[in-house]
Every structure is written in C-alpha cells, then in structure tokens.
Amino acid sequence: xxxxxxxxxxxxxATINGADLTNPxxxxxxxxxxxxxxxxxxxxxxxxxxxxxxxxxxxxxxxALETSGILGDRKLRVHEKLADVSNLDQNxxxxxxxxxxxxxxxxxxxxxxxxxxxATPAKYSALHAHAVPPEGGETQFADMRAAYxxxxxxxxxxxxxxxxxxxxFTSRAxxxxxxxxxxxxxxxxxxxxxxxxxxxxxxxxxLYLAAHASHIIGWPLPDGMMLLLDLMDHATEREFxxxxxxxxxxxxxxxxxxxxxxxxxxxxxxKRDMRRATVVDDGPTVAQEAA
Length: 291
Ligand code: OGA
Ligand code: MN
Description:
Layout: E1 4-7, E2 14-17, H1 27-40, E3 42-45, H2 52-60, E4 83-84, H3 100-105, E5 122-131, E6 139-143, H4 144-149, H5 153-159, E7 163-166, H6 168-174, H7 182-187, E8 191-194, E9 196-198, E10 205-207, E11 213-216, H8 221-235, E12 241-244, E13 251-255, E14 259-263, E15 273-280
Parallel strand pairs: 2-3
Antiparallel strand pairs: 1-2, 3-13, 4-15, 5-13, 5-15, 6-12, 6-14, 7-8, 7-11, 9-10
The structure holds N-oxalylglycine and manganese (II) ion (MN).
C-alpha cells in the first residue's frame, strides 16, 4: 500500500491515504506521517476503525502518553490511557443534561489547545470516533502559525516574548462551570506558557492561545485579558480554520503546539463516542514560578 499525503488546505490539514494503522507502522511510513504532521499540523485518517490498543499504539509512535482524566469521581468507560471525550456514562448511555461530566465536557466547545493548563502541555492529540451524531459535532481547528504570520510586525514584536497564565478553571468558569472538588482544584494549579512558540521541526512561529489562558504575566489584568481576547478573535478568523466532519472510524491527529481546536454543538440525544490518546510535550515552555 502506498501512503499519500493529500492537503485539505494549502498548508494546513491533510488527509493521509493508504496507511494501515491497524498494524505497527514501518519506519518509512512513519517518516512520511511525521513530516506531514510537521507541515500540515492536522492529519486526517478516514475510517481506520481502530481498537483502543491500536489507537494507543499509533499515538506511541510520537512520544510518551499523558493520562488526561480531569474529573476524579467516576469509573472509566475507556482505557485508562485514553481521554473519554464522549457524552456517555459507564453504561454507554447518554448522560443527562446537568451531569457534571457533560458540563465539564462543554468546555471542549471553547477554542483551546490540549492541556495548556499543565506546565508540560500536550504535544499531539489523536482523536478517534467510535460513534458520531448524524449532523453537528464537528471539530474545528485553527492554524496558529498562519495566524501569527498574519499579524503586523509591531504586534509580533509586542507579543513575541510574553508569557500567559493558563488554568483549567479559567476556561470552565467562562461557561459558568465551577463545580470542582477541592481535590480536583489542587490537582490542576495554574501554569505559565509562552505566548509565541517556535515549532522545533518547521521553525515556524505560532501563537499559543487557549480558553485556558487568563492574562499576561507582568501586565495589568485588563491589558492582558484584552490582548488575549483580541488575539483569539484574530486567530479564529475563517481563513485560518479547517472543520472536520466526522464519520465513525475516523482518526485525526493534531499538533497542539501550533493549533487550537473546538468541538461544535450537536443534538445530544445521539451518542457521540470519541476517545483521545494524548502525547506529552517535551517539557514546560517556560520556567514555572510560584504564583
Ligand atoms: C479533544 C477535544 C473536541 C471534540 O478531544 O481534545 O477538544 O470535537 N475534542 O470532541
Ligand atoms: Mn481538546
């Protein structure tokens, strides 16, 4: 089988055809996929229909995995190394409208990059669809390299060396969800992240923003919050976006260092069963100081 890379947009998002993800990838295929990931940042594999072990095996090609559970109060429906991004409970039934898990999961519909609220955030996420609603429930991606490139030089100079504070509770508070236990709060202290990152493989700069980001270190709160709001608006303009419409069995892997993503609403009487394998980044983007 010959593996081909088919760009979905000029330099952002590509479909990989001809890859067999149900078996360990050979070095040659892996090199092509890694190069495509470095260039296009979001890669779509149509319908590989993987088992959890196959999904984990695929993700492990790109580094060590993160354990990403946030809420500490329920039995796992999926493999402990996968994040359960579904609207289902442990019996595979759709959760109720006021379920805590659903409330927390709604935060995924805000633009974000995975685990930016951790000192060492996520490098890659590989999301696999097991069941999807007939319409809605897309995942949108924003190209933060293109968004950076499109800034004017004065703004680039202003933002290049800034550091933002990120917290899981910042994004959840934005949608009015504050129902966390003390234990959960203690588990996720704030983290500091560079506002502009350089992608090690491509050398391209990108904005590193997210709903988790609250303000700029060393700036008055309103100035930092305003700057972040402005940059979020800019980075999510239509020209920087790719929208993935899921079919069951699809796998999409993205580079969290240079993209943002968000889930889109859907009719929640349908099951949406998505499971995510997450590869940890190489380390913190900046030294963490006590807040
Ligand atoms: C994720 C995520 C959005 C979606 O898996 O990290 O944000 O569309 N998913 O499910
Ligand atoms: Mn996410």
